[in-house]
Structures are given as structure tokens and as C-alpha cells.
Amino acid sequence: MASVCFYFQVHQPYRLRRYSVFDADPNYFDEYANAELCRKVARRCYLPTNRLMLDLLRRHPEFAVSYSITGVALEQFEHWAPEVVDSFRALVDTGRVELLAETFYHSLAFLYSRDEFREQVLSHSARMQETFGVRPRIFRNTELIYNNDLARFIEDLGFTGVVAEGADHILGYRSPAFVYRPAGTKNLSLLLKHYRLSDDIAFRFSDRNWPEWPLKAETFAHWVDQVNGNGYVVNLFMDYETFGEHQWEDSGIFDFMYHLPGFVLKGGKNDFRTPSQALEAHEPEAELDIPHMISWADMERDLSAWLGNAMQSNALHELYRLEEAVKAAGNPQLLHDWRLLQTSDHFYYMCTKWFADGDVHKYFNPYESPYDSYINFMNVLDNVRARLKG
Amino acid sequence: MRILMLGWEFPPFISGGLGTACFGLTKALGHLGTDVLFILPRGGADQTLHRVHVLSAAEAPDQPASPYWTVEGLEHVRLIPVDSVLGPYQTEQEYAEERVRETQARQVAGKAAGGSAPSAGGAKPASLGVTSGPGLYAGDLFGEVHRYARLVAEVARRHDFDVIHAHDWMTFPAGLSVSALTGKPLVVHVHSTEFDRSGTAVNQRVYDVERAGMHGARQVICVSRLTRGIVTGRYGVPEGKCRVIYNAITVNGEPIPSSVERIETGDKIVLFLGRITMQKGPEYFLAAARKVLDVMDNVKFVMAGSGDMVRRMIELAAAMGIGHRVTFTGFLRGDDLDRVFRMADLYVMPSVSEPFGLAPLEALQRDVPVLISKQSGVSEVLTHALKVDFWDIHEMANKIVAVLRHPPLQKTLREHGAFEVRKFAWIDAARALMGVYSEVLGNGA
User: Fold this and answer.
1) What is the pTM of this model?
2) Catalytic (active site) residue A143
3) Is residue B409 within 8 angstroms of chain A, CB to CB?
């Protein structure tokens, strides 16, 4: 029996407006662009996909999925597309949709400040409880950034499981289809992304040069079945925007998803589980020692997408240097603004890897160049600093 | 394959991008084994003597009537001087002034030589037989362009070649006439157009010469997509006849002192380097400087270059009240140029219209980050540079301040830029050129 364990990432950053060194007002965010993008993605992805998932849950009692919804995304939905929040609530209310925990601001706080990290994790869990009535038990860190330290820290916060990337060069001969125990933890379980099968859907689905194109749900269900014998859980982790946004509707992605549960469940050999259900069903097979930071980004699966050049490390360093002063200032708006600046996307835009070739980084980047995004960010940070003095 | 190249300037005296490009391409073509007959207006040739051997007729027995020069290290290149005062960046007015200077100099030389033979400039290479041609000067710049064409045609009769390659408008009539005389295909290379040089105040006669050259040529090489857009849009040349071949920089050869220590001054230095003319956008540089000085005070703006707008810019800086923060150095070369690059924190090229723009690549090669206008050809291919619309002085100032304030930005631009700049190699441009030559010769691509 192989279990498909879906986890979808739901995130939208608060994009900054163009902020020059001559600007002095404390309005940093591009309200118009954020509202537009939020509504656009809601229309193309969140609403239709949630409708589809609800339908699947009704038609297949064995179907189950999980989501991680960032606090910044949730706040934007509440502002500009409240029907998206309602549709997620309807999913959670089925009892077969699990919500994962993460940092409220989709931040890199774990790398810079454990205090700030803890506060953001707790505020995110509290918000999930408040909005959806459930408290997350499994943790996923921003961009699946993970190492042994993170696992230990998360265990101390009371979580029962954590998810991470399962790329070959991290796992070696080991299969991502087992449950592992992170080195140095007592009761925590680790689920690893099955990157090949996940990427077949998230990246390759509409690639006409891919030999498997067009991918049929039946074929994919067959690949899932082949995991039997070398594992029992197929962790398909991906951005939720895969549906309708990264893979457009005319690629047949909705159709694929509509038919997938039927084929997976056919014959009763395989099923679907949420991360919590997977951990309940399976004890860890072995300990997994990951001392170095890994992530799910790019080929490198490391931190270089956010910390690969001097601008990125400088921007992050300068930002977190303000933590004490911002928290001492006792100004909730200032604290919120400072935290919104922590969203990892701001630093991703500054990435110079592959910039000259133009690729996936460019697609998601509202700036003309990584340099422009750094300049913009530092101008905003200057203003935060000025407010601290003022 | 043998190319008749109607070019400009040769080292060590190269005063601008056109000369650099002609030399870079010629040298790289030579490396690829292509023979180049490089026709050089004497105005530039005077300066090259010390690296050039003059071959006597006896040393070149195959073509007894046609002396030429060779240059050390460039076995495939023959340099043929032509007695013309044409300069690559002249306007009609500058030409007239040059002519007055020349005439006076000759009168002086004539008196010194005892009042005889005013046309022979002593030991100057001008005395190399073939180049004296019909008449010494032909009235205005256009007359000279056509006189040059006749001289080139005469040279061309004595040599064998397969393709004629002409660089910018002043050589187009010569290219056309040689092509008509010999039946060899003409390729014209557009480094800049009248629209780049004069904005909308276009000189109709120059335009007509350019247009005739482009339409008479088998292929038109443009130094950027920007230039191709002008060539197709303003001159009506079919797009299929245009090829974009970007310029490059010399990595080996003329050694550039890299990894030299920076010269630290108390002030941050922002550098404008180039001719101070309308097309280079000097007034936008000053307007941005003023804005920068609103928020920073330890900044100096250096304007290095000469041109017809220097006076106006000095006055403008004074009128803006930033005269004490702007330094005009005049035209720099050699050690002075090295020094100014070693002092600079940022190089700014605010050009209104820049067909390509080699200077930013040279700055990057010397470890100086660059801010360039989006209205430049080089911005199409250079990624690790800051870019701005030339008219957006607000954003220009914003970016200047950022570079001066944030060392990591400077560092990242510098590191990536110095790496990226290595991909601009003349040898690649020369290979692309070979493709064009083969095409016009009907050898297929």
C-alpha cells in the first residue's frame, strides 16, 4: 500500500512599491499590484482548485490533502478576496484537509533570530486556529529550509512532524518514500518530498518536449503504484499555484487532478493520507542526519537563492539588526511593517544566480534586475530606521 | 578571403568607439586568417608610425606600384594610408575648422622647407605615392567624402579583394563606387546614424549619403537592435538585410592594468566619461548630480571629455549651485584615464542615443560598476549593470545614491560585471562577420 500525501503551499508576498531614496512616507507596499495579483490568482487558481478539491473530497471518501497557508497570504485574501478564505474553510471543515504550520510572514527568521522565528510560528498557529478552528501539528519551514537544528527546535515547540526536501544528493541511496527520524530528536517524524513525482506535476506537466507529455492521470497513478516495495508514502509537495497559474488551465492540469484520485484508489491498492495520518500509520524507519541547510529551491537545493550574493546577505543582516530596536519601540504598525519585510520573496528577487540567462527567477520577479530590488529594499529599510529614530 | 576595409584610426591613437571597433574587428579577422586591406585616412595614420613598418616597393615585389604598411603582430593586415583629413567624428563645422588648421600648418611647413612644394609634408607618410590623388581638398566635408571615394577607388584598382566593408557614412560613397567599379559586394557597418548624432535636427545631406549606402549594400551590419530599429524604421532598409553584431572589448592586446589599487579620496567619485555632446546626455548627468547632492554631501562628479557642450555644462553646473562639486577634466588618455577609473565609485553613461556604447564595458573591465541609459545598444546585452531611462533623473539619482551608500551593491555589480564583460570578445564578432561575408559571396551561411 502506497499513500499519496499531498501538501500544497499557498503564499502571496506583500510586494513593495517603487520606493526611492527621496521618498519619506511609511507606505511601503504596492496596494494596487497586490490586490490585482491576489484577485487574479484567486480567479485562476485558488477558487477553481478549491472547488475541484471539495468536489473530489465529496466523491472520494478516501481522498485527503494538506495545505500550508502563509499569514501574509491569508491577510491578503481577507482584504481582497475573502471568498478564498471561505472556500479554504469549507475544505478544512470536511475533516480530511490538514493545515500545516509555518512562519506567519514566510520568513527566513530561523536563520537569523530564534526568538523572532518562535514568535512567527506561534502567531501563525494561532491564526490558523482562529480562522479555521484547527491547530497545526506538522511544521514546514519557508521554502522547505531545513536541518537538524530546525528539527530539534520544532520538536521543542511541540510539533509531531516536519517536512523537507528529498532530493537525491541529500538522501543518497535512501528513498524519500519512508518516514524518518531527524537526528537529535526523540519523537519527531520527518516526511520528505518525492521531488521527481512532485516536479512531474509542478514543472514538467505542460512541457511539450518532455517524453511523457501529455501526462495522463492513469500513467501517474501507475508511477505512484511502482513505489510499492520501496516505501509507503509518496509525498507530493508543490506550490498550490501549480494549478491554473504555473500550469495554465488549457494544459489540462485541472482535468488531470480531477481524474487522479479515481486512478490511485482503483483496486484498493493505494490511498491518500494527510501528513498527520501518514505519521500515525508509520513509525520512522531510520534516523536522518542533515547537518547542513537544505531547501527545495533550484538545482542546488540550498540557501543560495536567498543568500547567494553580498546584497542578499547585507539586506538580511541589516533587517534583522533592527529587531531589538523595532520590538522596543512599542509601535505595532512599525513591527508589522518590519516583519512584512522579512518575507523571503524580497531576497529571492535579489538573486543573481542565472540572472543573465533569465529563467524561473525572472518569471516571478516584479523587478527589472536583482540590483533594482536591492536598491528598493534598502531605501525602505532606511525609512524604517528613520522611523525608529523619529 | 580578402576584405577591403574602409576603416578609421589605428592604435595607439584611438579617440572613440568607431576606431576601437574597426581595429578590434580587423585584428580578430586577422586571427581567423582573413586578409584585411585596411584603408586609413591619413588624419589618423600620422600617429601610428612607431609600430608600423613602411615597406618599400622592393619588399613587396608582387604589387610594385602599391606601397602599404604592416603592423607588428598583425600578419594578415595591410594598412594603406589615404591622404584625406576626414576624421571619424566630424561635423561639417569641425571639418571646416580642421581644414583651416591644416592649410596653416602646410604654409608654415612650406616656408620652413624654403617655400617649395607645399603639398609634401616633409617626412610624413603622406608622401607615400598613391595617396596624393586628385586635388588636395575639395571644399566642404561632402566634397572631401567624395574626394576620399576617388582616392579609395584608385587604391582598390591595385589590389585583389572579395568583399568591401565600409564603416559609417563617410566611407559609404567610397564603398559604393568601389563596388560599382569592381562588382564586389559591399557590406556597410552602421556604428551610428545621423539620428543618434543630431537628434531630430538631421542633416539631410548626411542622411541621403547614409541611405544610399545602406540601400546599395548587400548587407547592413548594425551594432545593436536599437540601431537596427533606426535603420529599418528611418532609412527604410528591409529587416532581412540587417544583421545585428554587437561590439566587444579587447581582453588581450592593449593591456589594461586590472587589479590595480584603487585611489581613495575623501569623496565618492561619480564619473561621466565621453564626448560632452547632446547625444551623450551630459545635462541629465548634472541634473541627477544635483539631486544626489540633496541627500549626500561627500560626492564629487567628474566629467571627463571634450565636446561642443562643455561650456554650457560648466555654466549649468554653476547655475545649479553645484559648481564646486563638479570637475571638468577635458579629454583624458593614458595614465590620466587609468587614474580617473581607479578613483571612480561609479561610471554613468546617461546617453540620449547610444548605438552601442563601449565605454561601460571598459569601465567594468577596470572594476568600476556602471549605470547606463536604456537608450543604449549595450544595455541590450549587458545584464550586470544598473539601467535607467536617460530622462529619468530622479531614478538616476536614486541609483547613484544606492551605489555610493551600499558597498555590497557596488561589490556585487563589480564582481558579476567584471565576469560578464569577458563574454564580449571581438573574435565572436569577427566570426559573425565571416558569416556575413560568406553570405554576400553566395557561399551560403
Assistant:
1) 0.88
2) yes
3) yes
